[in-house]
Design brief:
The chain is about 45% helix and about 15% strand. It is built from 10 helices and 7 strands.
Length: about 230
């Protein structure tokens, strides 16, 4: 019973002030470098085209980031489309035209300004999930059939986060957008996308032309529970 009481005790103190992610058997308090990389990832909306990397380097960075991500049953269901130059511009033109038809006229002006910010970036990453892979796994493992779409979303989320973090670590800015599903048909037609690919998100990136907006962090006591 005493053990259960111990396990059930919630530690509510703010340990970060003293702990600072110390490694075992090390005297000085140091922050783990990977966490520093994660902290660089912020939503940057003021983007530009002053990028010192080649398109080939960025494409390979994106590919390696996705290759390094886990997936349920090693499904590797994520599919990536990277847009540069005219393809990037045309994509955001398509999004604007779709939004023009779908939102009220008095709202569209604000929407158009946001889309122009995206078009001002250097490139865009489209994240898809291959539904054919998911359906095959559902047939192969029927007792988990309902779970595979959920696991697919988790796989896509990890890929999005990995690419976004890699781009931020390279000194570029980015923001994640979700104009799907309204743009799916027009984009698929433009890019000749496989009918089994389902669009999940759009990551626009470029040079950092303005700081990330301020954000309010919830209190740790509201987000975390630590048991001992």
């Amino acid at each position: 019973m005493a053990l259960l009481d111990k396990i059930g005790h919630v530690l509510t103190a703010d340990i970060t002030k003293d702990f600072k992610l110390k490694k075992k058997n090390e005297e000085p308090a140091i922050e783990v470098s990977f966490v520093n990389h994660l902290k660089k990832r912020r939503s940057i909306y003021d983007l530009g085209k002053k990028v010192r990397y080649s398109q080939a380097y960025i494409a390979e960075l994106i590919q390696e980031s996705v290759r390094s991500c886990p997936s349920a049953y090693n499904s590797q269901s994520t599919r990536i489309v990277v847009l540069f130059g005219e393809s990037h511009q045309k994509f955001w033109d398509i999004v604007k035209e779709v939004q023009r038809k779908n939102v009220a006229a008095h709202v569209f002006e604000g929407v158009a300004l946001k889309l122009d910010q995206c078009a001002a970036g250097f490139g865009t990453v489209l994240f898809y999930e291959d539904q054919a892979v998911i359906q095959q796994l559902q047939k192969k493992v029927p007792f988990s059939a309902e779970d595979f779409p959920v696991w697919s979303e988790q796989t896509s989320g990890m890929a999005q986060f990995a690419v976004w973090t890699s781009i931020a670590d390279a000194g570029l800015g980015a923001s994640l957008q979700h104009y799907n599903p309204s743009i799916d048909y027009a984009v698929s037609d433009f890019l000749s996308i496989d009918k089994n690919w389902l669009l999940r998100a759009q990551l626009v990136f470029g040079s950092v032309e303005g700081p990330a907006p301020e954000r309010e962090e919830p209190k740790d006591q509201e987000r975390f529970r630590i048991y001992a």
